[in-house]
Specification:
Shape: globular
Number of strands: 12
Radius of gyration: 17 Å
Order of helices and strands: EHHEHEEEHEEHEHEHHEEE
Oligomer: single chain
Number of helices: 8
Largest sheet: 6 strands, mixed
Structural class: alpha+beta
Strand order of the largest sheet: 3-4-2-1-12-11
Strand content: 25-35%
């Protein structure tokens, strides 16, 4: 199964930039989307379904904000909208699908770049999400957590670690959460196959030249729980795909 995770920074804008044509030629069995910024009725779902996908959308209550989706060619047994935590669900941050004994989550972690209030909420959300996963894995130990984590984990995951040490997304507390997450029997699928630097999934749209110069951050991940590690067959990042300020990240898993 080929799985893609992609923060599209507005699904309607991505459609206008050729998202559907890309999906036709470089699609996957499952595509997890973040920051769709649209309600279901605003999306050309028929164009996606024509490619053989079942589609599941979880939008934020606030229009044009946040939201996640899962497109899958294999129909799930169950779908769960949200994680049962009020603010997270109001912001459309977690969507879960189950196939057999495997559970996949598309998650859009909060950003703290707008100020102290949102940074504080980001820490709350991280703790709540960690507890949610720990509870879920008691019944569903085979987990795949796709999404925009909005955190560059290690110095190798950011082009300029020294100048960004006090920047939201690379703060010590955020990186410590990633340490805790990956020491709790989760695996960063990309790093299983690639230990080299200069692989990024996001570049600032405020400075278009940084993408050309590859001055980016790796903040998009597909993580799997330890029981699925042996099923990983490959992982990659697709920086040539440009419908967003992010690019898709990919993993292949043999169930």
């Amino acid at each position: 199964m080929r799985i893609i995770s992609y923060n599209v920074n507005g699904i309607r804008a991505a459609f206008k930039k050729g998202f559907i044509d890309w999906l036709k030629t470089d699609g996957a069995d499952v595509v997890c989307l973040q920051e769709i910024k649209a309600n279901k009725e605003d999306i050309d779902i028929a164009a996606v379904e024509a490619l053989g996908y079942h589609t599941y959308w979880f939008s934020a209550e606030k229009k044009g904000y946040s939201g996640v989706a899962v497109l899958t060619k294999r129909k799930p047994n169950q779908v769960f909208y949200g994680n049962g935590i009020m603010q997270s669900d109001a912001e459309g941050r977690v969507l879960r699908v189950d196939w057999g004994d495997v559970t996949l989550i598309s998650a859009y972690f909060p950003s703290g770049t707008s100020g102290e209030e949102r940074q504080g909420y980001k820490y709350i959300w991280l703790d709540e999400f960690y507890d949610y996963l720990n509870t879920l894995r008691k019944e569903r130990p085979k987990l795949i957590v796709c999404g925009d984590y909005n955190i560059a984990h290690k110095e190798i995951d950011i082009h300029s670690p020294k100048t960004n040490k006090n920047t939201s997304g690379f703060l010590p507390e955020e990186r410590a959460w990633m340490d805790k997450f990956y020491s709790n029997d989760f695996v960063d699928s990309f790093r299983v196959f690639n230990a080299e630097p200069h692989h990024y999934s996001w570049w600032s749209a405020r400075f278009p030249s940084v993408r050309e110069q590859n001055k980016g951050w790796r903040i998009d991940y597909i993580s799997v729980s330890e029981p699925l590690k042996k099923s990983l067959k490959g992982a990659e990042i697709l920086p040539h795909v440009k419908h967003s300020d992010h690019c898709p990240v990919v993993v292949e898993v043999d169930f």
